[in-house]
Design brief:
twelve-stranded mixed beta sheet, elongated, 42% strand, six-stranded antiparallel beta sheet, Immunoglobulin-like
């Protein structure tokens, strides 16, 4: 009389009361209710609460019960592993081997660009339903960026917290401030914070280009013989901006192209690559016209003439600064290092942790992947003088090493630095009677085809030469009471 319907009961207790044959007892094969069964949920529902059963996984939907919530098909909790039916819940997406946030916080569907997915292999996608296979984290957006943790780095060896050491490769943005490291992006290289170079995107420019001072190396060429060399041209008025190569120009079979790089602030050099098979031989000259096509950031014109010079190329430079913490070759200590312009050799003054500043030794490193033999001569000057020399000093590959002041006309194999020893290139200790020595070194590769000669000048001072180099005297890894001078002349002969 109230329009209630009862199945297997004469006294329905609700609008529809369906009872099992064995009411409140054990289920039988004939019990239950079958709702409409479908094989796709690609179409929208028509009425809130519409209920269906998906007979198989389809698209992003998992086999099981689903209902239309007015906006999306929502799986019932525990139905076929479809996930939590509440708003913004994680939903299993078995066909695509991932779990994903099924809706926004208001229950509406997530649109393209708002996805948040986690693949079964651990990769995460934010703003994309398909993270790139080469990435563990793929953040995709066309109008937003990525913000890493922002910290204040007070020194180059700072640990971010006391409980866990910085992991190699750790990336942060340093907000800087008075007395701290300059602001910018930094990464931890395993022993110190390294700043990622920050260069403005303003266009490059120079005011003058001195083509008359251009030098070709090698300075001679032969008709019909393939040539590869470099031209260096001085400029002034550089604004410190990066630049790219311009157009090429070919004369007498030789093609000149500017190499990309970064301008100095003020004076510097532009480097041009010269390659090809010349149609003439030196001393017949070759003249390259230079204009804004060849050097895009210069508005002038000039000519570079080469081929008639046998000049020697001299590159002289120096560094000046304190000893700083290092752990090269496995031994902790403090050092200052200079590297030749061609990158083939490095020289450092090094003192192990816990040793007196006056005990600094000079060491040389062959930066190649194989041994190199050199002809070597060194002198130290104080109230007296001394020296040592070798016809053939063999340097191990990529290892700080020294000859321990051994002179010999036969082959000498340099001793490599290890975690426990302390070899010296030349006389050990750079102080004599508590005062700094001056050191002079000359060397060149034993290879008769090598045309480069190196000349080194060195001196170090300390306001407390008998003091011990350690974390107390060198806070933050910098020994402020020391000053090291290196100068290298790299001479390339013809």
């Amino acid at each position: 009389m109230y329009s209630q319907v009862g199945i297997n009961t004469a006294a329905p207790e609700s609008t529809l009361d369906v009872r099992a044959k064995n009411h409140l007892g054990t289920v039988t094969a004939q019990d239950g209710v079958l709702v409409p069964r479908v094989n796709s949920l690609s179409a929208s529902g028509s009425v809130n609460g519409q209920l269906v059963y998906l007979i198989a996984d389809a698209g992003g939907f998992i086999k099981g019960f689903h209902f239309w919530n007015g906006t999306v098909w929502q799986p019932l909790g525990g139905s076929g592993g479809s996930g939590d039916p509440t708003k913004d819940a994680w939903v299993d997406n078995i066909p695509n081997t991932l779990v994903e946030l099924g809706s926004k916080s208001d229950g509406t569907s997530r649109t393209a660009g708002t996805e948040f997915v986690a693949l079964d292999n651990g990769a995460v996608g934010i703003g994309t339903p398909a993270p790139d296979g080469s990435a563990m984290l793929d953040v995709t957006a066309n109008d937003k960026g990525f913000l890493p943790p922002r910290v204040v780095l007070t020194n180059r060896t700072m640990q971010l917290n006391a409980s866990t050491a910085n992991a190699t490769g750790l990336w942060v943005y340093n907000t800087g401030g008075t007395g701290n490291l300059p602001h910018g992006y930094y990464y931890w290289n395993g022993s110190e914070w390294r700043q990622v170079t920050s260069i403005t995107t303003d266009p490059p420019s120079i005011s003058t280009l001195n083509c008359d001072a251009a030098g070709l190396r090698p300075s001679s060429y032969t008709a019909g013989v393939p040539y590869s060399g470099m031209i260096r041209v001085p400029y002034s008025g550089g604004n410190g901006r990066p630049y790219t190569a311009g157009s090429s120009v070919t004369v007498n079979g030789l093609t000149l192209t500017l190499l990309e790089g970064i301008l100095e602030q003020g004076t510097g050099y532009l480097y041009f690559k010269v390659e090809g098979t010349p149609t003439v031989s030196s001393p017949t000259t070759t003249t390259f016209p230079i204009n804004s096509s060849v050097v895009p950031f210069w508005t002038g014109t000039c000519n570079i003439t080469v081929g008639n010079s046998l000049a020697t190329d001299l590159d002289s430079f120096a560094i000046l600064g304190p000893l700083k913490a290092t752990s090269d070759n496995g031994r902790a200590g403090y050092a200052t290092t200079i590297t030749t312009r061609d990158g083939k050799y490095s020289v450092r003054c090094f003192v192990p942790d816990g040793s007196a500043f006056a005990a600094v030794n000079l060491q040389i490193r062959n930066n190649s992947t194989s041994t190199v033999d050199i002809i070597s001569n060194g002198h130290y000057l104080w109230s007296g003088a001394g020296g040592y020399m070798q016809n053939q000093l063999r340097l191990p590959a990529n290892t700080w090493a020294g000859d321990n002041a051994t002179s010999n006309s036969a082959l000498i194999v340099a001793t490599g630095q290890t975690a426990t020893n302390f070899p010296s290139w030349g006389d050990g200790g750079v102080y004599a009677s508590g005062m700094p020595e001056q050191r002079l070194y000359k060397w060149t590769a034993y290879d008769t085809n090598e045309k480069t000669f190196y000349s080194l000048e060195f001196m170090m001072g300390s306001n407390n030469p008998n003091g011990v180099a350690n974390a107390t005297t060198c806070p933050g890894g910098v020994c402020a009471g020391t000053k090291v001078f290196f100068k290298i002349d790299q001479i390339t002969a013809q």
